[in-house]
Amino acid sequence: MRPHPEIDFQPRRTRPLPVLATAAAAAALLAPLALGPAHAAEPVYEPWRDAASDHGVTMGFALSPQHLSIDGYRQVAEREFDLVVAENAMKWDATEPSRGAFSWGQADQVAAFAESIDADLYGHTLVWHSQLPGWVESISDPVELRTVMHDHIDAVAGRYAGQVDAWDVVNELWEGDGSRRQSVFQRVLGDGYVAEALTRARQAAPDADLCLNDYSTDAINAKSTAMYELVADLIDDGVPIDCVGFQSHLIVGQVPSSFQQNLQRFADLGVDVRITELDIRMNVPASAADLQRQAADYRAVVEACLAVDRCTGVTVWGIDDGHSWVPDVFSGQGAALPWDAQYQPKPAYSAVAEALGAELDGGSGPDPTPTPTPTGGPDEGTCSVAWSVAAWDSGYTGTVSVTNTGPDPWSSWQLVAALPAGQQLQQGWSAQWSQSGGTLTASNAAWNASVPPGASVQVGYNATHAGDTTVPTDVAVNGSACT
């Protein structure tokens, strides 16, 4: 079993915060209550949904409506997200457990909650081999199965027509090698069932975007290429197809290097793309290093989406580690979501906020457009740098705090340092990062260019290493050596 997500495709509008409208209330929600030893309190940022709207994308989550009675769960849901997808409530076994006998209770709760917080509603899912009632699985006559599939799409998509912004029409149709999964729909109806389902969904919900969704398609591989070729064929054949979802159930440290390139090739076909079921699991109990590494991975996924014009946003598969599907399926693994089991934010929460350019503590927020040219730097001896490294296997996360120890403010800054042999920059945040030979350079972004006397700026990066994880040396800011 694999839980499921969302998709949204309309330009975002800025929405008022529906609950926790004050900074004090937000701080109370995000303040530490019972944090474990693996992570400390995270700073309070503006809601993800507000920061995302500046980029024209949405931030979604998978909702289990039975958890809305839990204060921490509901408060995070209301504060952070502007897209809602049912984790299980709209699947076939939940909506039509017996033929023609529909159950709408939990699905209606999901739709009502989305409306109550002015969030988009994403439908998941109409046709899927899993969580399928036995009475459907047992059908062997193609005429009967086609009728059943059409009736189900008509009923479910039709009920929420005008409310659901996008549907996962067909979910998980591929095997890992790019061959068709031998679901009852594939076995009895053949390859054409996908086009049939999309066409029927267009009739039932003419205003909704229609998507295909699958897992392990995040990288360019046999499975994603099969999806790519199918989407191209559907477009050529005039079949309604608007979007492709990438579930992104990932493992810490394994964000594919071809992630952004893969999203872009689908976007180039003329369809929208979305990260639909994001979680990043690790062995538990989680270590501080794993949590930092997870944060970098969350940041990388969000940044990949933001770099692709037709990426409509990111949906996380749940809210908190205490209600994640991961431990039930992957023994010894978990801690996959941005909030812990006490609804306290983890480093991944901050990483996503920073990737979105979220404002911190009500201050002036970051401008997504950086200004890299340094002017007005410090004199010799008027800066200090604290550099730390959290290493694993062949990589590490570097955290850098640069302090203005001089009497004059900086209007911009550029940090230069010598990387130890074998270290190679992979990505960075809160600055423009580059590497030339053994020299690492970080230039300010627009939002952190100004550094008053006595103030500090924090930046970070990921790098690979060949065994030497010592911190860079010969650090200078705007040409002046730092202590």
From TrEMBL:
GO terms for molecular function: endo-1,4-beta-xylanase activity. Keywords: Carbohydrate metabolism, Cellulose degradation, Glycosidase, Hydrolase, Polysaccharide degradation, Signal, Xylan degradation. InterPro entries: CBD2, CBM2/CBM3_carb-bd_dom_sf, CBM2_carb-bd_dom_sf, CBM2_CS, GH, GH10, GH10_AS, GH10_dom. The active site is at 277 (nucleophile). Residues 358-379 are annotated as: Disordered. It is an enzyme of class 3 (hydrolase). The keyword Endoplasmic reticulum does not apply. Residues 42-355 form the GH10 domain. It catalyses: Endohydrolysis of (1->4)-beta-D-xylosidic linkages in xylans. It comes from the Bacteria. Its EC number is 3.2.1.8. SUPFAM superfamilies: (Trans)glycosidases, Carbohydrate-binding domain. Residues 376-483 form the CBM2 domain. SMART domains: CBD_II, Glyco_10. Residues 1-40 form the signal peptide. Belongs to the glycosyl hydrolase 10 (cellulase F) family. PANTHER family: BETA-XYLANASE, GLYCOSYL HYDROLASE. This is Beta-xylanase.
